[in-house]
């Protein structure tokens, strides 16, 4: 099984941590970088090869990870000279990729079963599988519904439930056909194109542990919780 880790972003939301370190290498706990945790998890799940798409401070990532052999992986790299969006780096890799593969952000902290995501993607026959997570959003204001300048409904500080993308995807190489390598391609653009073509992606709903470390509050939470959750996130470590 093959995985592509997207690690080329500048991590603007995590400054000043990311001024000198690429976001996937910011520390979690006392001993581990996020990217190390991800690579350990992929290896434990049965992945054998991995491509890391690097850009901002990418040479630091290359120096840290090397060929991946310390985690039982064969790692290679794709360098992003200019920002290409979430899916854009995959276009330059297309000829090197297997028929189906996992794609994920390099700043995800979760106990998601990556191998099962890819297995379910293959079984679904969908062009894209999106791992999803339930989020509750609290609105700090009274919400009005209006019609022709008349208030027709009112809800005081409601909570709304959504399923959001976890930044982990199963993808088929054929899904990338028709896009031009070297041009930006966002995850949003790809999904909207698939919906427009009535070629719906598959949802992989997950309700375990997940944090998007790109958010400062989640990064602080990850460090606070890591010791108690280490055995969950690094099984056998």
From TrEMBL:
Domain named Nucleotidyl transferase: residues: 3-227
InterPro entries listed in its UniProt record: Mannose-1P_guanyltransferase, NTP_transferase_dom, Nucleotide-diphossugar_trans
Organism superkingdom: Bacteria
Pfam family, any one: NTP_transferase
PANTHER family, A to Z: SUGAR-1-PHOSPHATE GUANYL TRANSFERASE
Record's protein name: Nucleoside-diphosphate-sugar pyrophosphorylase
Protein species of origin: Streptomyces cahuitamycinicus
Taxonomic lineage from the root: Bacteria, Bacillati, Actinomycetota, Actinomycetes, Kitasatosporales
């Amino acid at each position: 099984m093959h995985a592509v880790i997207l690690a080329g972003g500048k991590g603007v939301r995590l400054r000043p941590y990311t001024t000198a370190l690429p976001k996937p290498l910011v520390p979690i706990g006392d001993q581990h970088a996020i990217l190390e945790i991800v690579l350990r998890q992929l290896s434990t799940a049965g992945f054998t090869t991995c491509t890391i798409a690097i850009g901002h401070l990418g040479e630091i990532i290359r120096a840290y990870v090397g060929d991946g052999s310390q985690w039982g992986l064969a790692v290679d790299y794709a360098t992003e000279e200019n920002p290409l969006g979430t899916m854009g780096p995959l276009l330059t890799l297309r000829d090197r990729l297997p028929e189906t593969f996992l794609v994920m952000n390099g700043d995800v902290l979760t106990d998601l079963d990556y191998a099962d995501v890819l297995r379910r993607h293959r079984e679904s026959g969908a062009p894209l599988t999106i791992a999803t997570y339930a989020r509750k959003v609290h609105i700090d204001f009274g919400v009005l519904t209006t019609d022709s300048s008349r208030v027709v409904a009112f809800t005081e500080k409601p909570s709304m439930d959504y399923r959001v993308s976890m930044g982990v995807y199963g993808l088929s190489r054929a899904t990338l056909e028709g896009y031009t390598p070297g041009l930006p391609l966002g995850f949003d653009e790809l999904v909207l194109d698939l919906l427009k073509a009535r070629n719906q992606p598959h949802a992989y709903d997950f309700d375990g542990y997940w944090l998007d470390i790109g958010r400062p509050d989640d990064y602080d939470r990850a460090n606070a919780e890591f010791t108690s959750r280490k055995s969950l996130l690094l099984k056998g470590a």
